[in-house]
Design a protein that fits this description.
The chain has 17 helices and 12 strands. The protein is an alpha/beta fold. Strand 8, helix 9 and strand 9 form a beta-alpha-beta unit. The structure holds flavin mononucleotide.
């Protein structure tokens, strides 16, 4: 099966089947209500600078597609919507266009309709290892990218019949890439990044990660459906067993931030309230993918309509916590409950930093 047709399978499954996580880790976080915000709502400014460009909100539509003629229109709509909204956009893995140049315009069409926003290219870490760091310049040129996300997807590869599991040497390849001209973002794809890997990445010269943690789209889930389609019972069972594998997004944000990395929060970000919670945990930006897929199969307006409430809810969260700019969210008192609290405790994090005590301790 080619990279290109596999991508179509993924989109079809994401549109037709329930592929989201069975838990919602952001529900464990409560931003403390400020009964006396002492700011005027009209003074709230949600703008943010990302990769040197000013945006209307610290938000991106995360990497999804490109690489098949049938999905070019999806990318164009995502690009038009992101441009209208003043937010960033990631494209899906550009591997298919490396294998077949004719597919390049399914990616480059995005830049044509969104000349002013940050656009992030995408390639798998194993592909980077095989091709060498030079490939990044070609990928960046293809879409005039502001950065390239190098994705880690070993959970997905483990459940794929054609999975690529040659993970040795990936860190070295990332280190070489980090020393190159093209800015890179190391991005997971739904299983999160723990502090141990964040430390190794930081030591290798990486500055920014997109945690894409557990709590949103499950690639094990998607691959379970794909295995079922071809009658591979054992792989289907593996997909179901590993459905919820990974580090929940809020935990991963804290772990990566603790290693001094710039953090993009993604994986189960389902509202502007989740964006505000992410920023309160130390992320500087947030992304969402799956919820934008169905609207993008309709038209550009549908994507704008799906994304606008994120910005509205971010604004309301800022008002109710007394923040006039997004950076102030990092100082908002946050109460951590439930499974996230247990996770952080088990991983040795000082919960007082992430609770109402953060405010009281000042
Ligand atoms: C249809 C689809 C295709 C995706 N393809 C890619 C990809 O090519 N590269 C990548 O880094 N992530 C890819 N992702 C993962 C997303 O960028 C994101 O990390 C993940 O879906 C978690 O975010 P969510 O819970 O908001 O969907 C894809 C997601 C979807 C839904």
């Amino acid at each position: 099966m080619t990279t290109s047709s596999r991508k179509l399978d993924h989109i079809r499954i994401c549109l037709e089947k329930p592929v989201d996580a069975k838990n919602c880790p952001f529900q464990d976080l409560v931003l403390l209500h400020k009964a006396l915000p002492e700011i005027d709502e009209a003074d709230i400014d949600t703008s943010s600078v990302f990769l040197g460009r000013k945006l209307k909100a610290p938000l991106m539509i995360s990497a999804m597609t490109g690489g098949h003629p049938a999905v070019k229109q999806i990318n164009v709509r995502l690009g038009e919507a992101a441009s209208e909204l003043g937010i960033a956009l990631g494209v899906g893995s550009q591997r298919a266009a490396i294998e077949d140049r004719k597919l390049e315009d399914t990616f480059s069409a995005v830049r044509d309709v969104a000349p002013d926003i940050p656009i992030i290219g995408n390639i798998g870490a194993v592909q980077l290892k095989r091709s060498g760091p030079e490939i990044l310049e070609r990928l960046a040129e293809m879409i005039d990218a502001d950065a390239i996300a190098v994705h880690l997807n070993f959970l997905q590869e483990s459940i794929q019949p054609e999975g690529d599991k040659e993970a040795s040497g990936v860190l070295d390849a990332i280190g070489s890439a980090a020393r190159g001209k093209v800015p890179i973002i190391i991005k997971e794809t739904g299983a999160g990044i723990p502090w141990e890997a964040a430390r190794d990445l930081a030591n290798a010269g990486v500055k920014m990660v997109d945690v894409s943690g557990q709590g949103g789209l499950s690639w094990a889930g998607v691959e379970a459906y794909r295995a079922a389609m071809v009658g591979d019972d054992e792989l289907e069972e593996m997909g179901r067993l590993f459905w919820s594998w990974g580090i929940p997004t809020p935990v991963s944000i804290i772990e990566c931030k603790a290693q001094g990395l710039d953090v993009i929060s993604s994986g189960g970000v389902r509202s502007g309230l989740d964006v505000a919670k992410s920023l309160s945990l130390g992320a500087s930006f947030a992304g969402t993918a799956l919820p934008m897929l169905k609207p993008a199969t309709k038209d550009t307006k549908a994507v704008v309509k799906a994304m606008n409430p994120y910005i509205r809810a971010l604004r309301i969260s800022m008002f109710l916590t007394g923040c006039t700019n997004v950076r102030q969210l990092a100082r908002v008192p946050l109460v951590v409950l439930g499974r996230t609290r247990v996770w952080l405790d088990a991983r040795g994090f000082d919960l007082r930093k992430f609770s109402v005590y953060r405010e009281l301790a000042k």
